């Protein structure tokens, strides 16, 4: 009778692990026993960490410290800042600059790839 209760506990535990971790649900015939031991141990530790983390979700939220108010910069001349914004936006959207940066990136990656495989 005690053996059956233990078997049910093990089946329930593996069912919980299989529902959470796909690697435990797959076939294991061709795995090394040491690797299986490491996988199961890791899954059990992760499962326990998840349960422990979820356990405290119902408690009240405690604020550890107060956040200082952010420094706000007052705008004196809105037109100048808007013009700067437009200039930066045009610079970002510049197609020639985009093509030049793209080509430089391609050349850099090509040089890295060819130098590493020589």
Automatic annotation (TrEMBL):
Recorded superkingdom: Eukaryota
InterPro entries on file: Harbinger_derived_prot
Pfam families xref list: Plant_tran (PF04827)
Protein name (record): DDE Tnp4 domain-containing protein
Taxonomic source organism: Dendrobium catenatum
